[in-house]
UniProtKB/TrEMBL annotation:
This is Ultraviolet sensitive opsin. It is a multi-pass membrane protein. The lineage of its organism: Eukaryota, Metazoa, Ecdysozoa, Arthropoda, Hexapoda. The chain crosses the membrane at residues 55-79, 91-112, 118-147, 168-188, 216-237, 281-305, 317-337. It comes from the Eukaryota. GO terms for molecular function: G protein-coupled receptor activity; photoreceptor activity. Its main location: membrane. GO terms for cellular component: membrane. Keywords: Chromophore, Disulfide bond, G-protein coupled receptor, Glycoprotein, Membrane, Photoreceptor protein, Receptor, Retinal protein, Sensory transduction, Transducer, Transmembrane, Transmembrane helix, Vision. The keyword Cell membrane does not apply. The keyword Ribosomal protein does not apply. Belongs to the G-protein coupled receptor 1 family. Pfam families: 7tm_1.
Length: 378
């Protein structure tokens, strides 16, 4: 058996049904007739993985499930119930946490399939798993784009660019109206379809069928769910960095004319420069989106238009793990670093021993200065 099926050569005697000991079965050898429409033949050309690999992936998903449910659950609870966090900007954080929560809420289907070593949940389980993945994935991408837009308007137009709660609600409603059709069309097989991938324990859109209609669907969803939010995120954060660099340059020039070292207060001089904070925040946010969804986007494009022999079952499981991992990390990047969130968490769960200084006790002057040079907390 080739190790983990990472680079296994297709084994063309597929769906062997012999139960004799020592016989090498291919993936999907014991499928029921009603399951066959959900299983692309490409995966059945590879040897069945060892049962221990199924168990390992199942345990990894259990860890992801617990980490994401707890982390995003806390974000949903704190941001929804704390009055100090009920801002327009934080509405996007709540929506992102909901998407990440949904992303891992489907994990029990994968865990059930893994512990049963294959396509145990059947066609209905496949559609539920893939539908929730599509909703949460595209929803998270568009929410990230809205967060980038919110920070862009807040920083570049601090006096008149702040988004109102009504506008934020309209944007969130638009996100779901934008996302739901991409979930519904393959679910009801209006355009595209859902199918298993890898070891037949996960499901996604069918990116292996080479019909014109399916290829057009793959190209369309690739553009709308990956390219558009990616370009928006890159544009808005690049504008933020450019704006901050220009602002810092103007401050330095003005300080030079006034023959002073800096126009900033002593407290600001002791902290990291604004341009570095903005650059790091922008790079981190962009990197998370790129790291989580680029591998999956590349996987889908190779399946639809490239050399499908590159997509071994083991390789195809890596992008899916990436997406789930980011759903666990997001609460920490977007929320746990938020001082008001940490303060509320400390009040409600003191046994966590967070020891965050009361955000509201900070001076108004310092808060206003920081808000003019750094992204608004979300």
């Amino acid at each position: 058996m080739n190790l983990l099926n990472w680079t296994a050569v297709p084994y063309f005697q597929h769906r062997i049904v012999s139960l004799e000991d020592g016989i090498q079965h291919n993936i999907g050898w014991n499928l029921r007739p009603e399951d066959l429409p959900y299983v692309p033949e490409h995966w059945t050309l590879y040897p069945e993985p060892d049962k221990s690999l199924h168990l390992l992936l199942g345990m990894v998903y259990i860890f992801f499930f617990l980490a994401a449910i707890i982390g995003n659950g806390l974000v949903l609870w704190i941001f929804s119930s704390a009055k100090s966090l009920r801002s327009a900007s934080n509405m996007f954080v709540v929506n992102l946490a909901f998407c990440d929560f949904m992303m891992m809420l489907k994990a029990p289907i994968f865990i059930y399939n893994s512990f049963n070593h294959g396509f145990a949940a059947g066609g209905l389980g496949c559609k539920i798993f893939a539908s929730m993945g599509t909703l949460s994935g595209i929803g998270a991408g568009m929410t990230n784009a809205c967060i980038a837009y919110d920070r862009y308007t807040t920083i570049t137009r601090p006096f008149d660019g702040k988004i109102t709660r009504t506008k934020a609600l309209i944007m969130i409603i638009f996100i779901w109206f934008y996302t739901i059709p991409w979930m519904a069309m393959p679910a009801f097989e209006v355009w595209g379809q859902y199918a298993t991938e890898g070891y037949l324990t996960a499901c996604s859109m069918d990116y292996l069928t080479r019909t014109f209609s399916n290829r057009l669907f793959i190209a369309s969803i690739f553009t709308c769910s990956y390219v558009i939010p990616m370009l928006a995120i890159i544009y808005f954060y690049s504008q933020i960095v450019s704006k901050v660099f220009s602002h810092e340059k103007a401050l330095r020039e003005q300080a030079k004319k006034m023959n002073v070292e800096s126009l900033r207060t002593n407290q600001q001089q002791q902290s990291e420069s604004a341009e570095m904070r903005i650059a790091k925040a922008a790079i981190t946010i962009c990197f998370l989106f790129v790291a989580s969804w680029t591998p999956y986007a590349v996987l889908a494009m190779i399946g639809g238009f490239g050399d499908q022999s590159l997509l071994t079952p083991g390789v195809s499981m890596i992008p899916a793990l990436n997406c789930k991992l980011v759903a666990c990390i997001d609460p920490y990047v977007y929320a746990i670093s938020h001082p008001k969130y940490r303060t509320e968490l400390q009040k409600r769960l003191p046994w966590l021993a967070i020891k965050e200084k009361d955000y509201d006790a900070r001076s108004v002057t310092t808060a206003n200065t920081e808000s003019s040079t750094t992204p608004a907390p979300t």
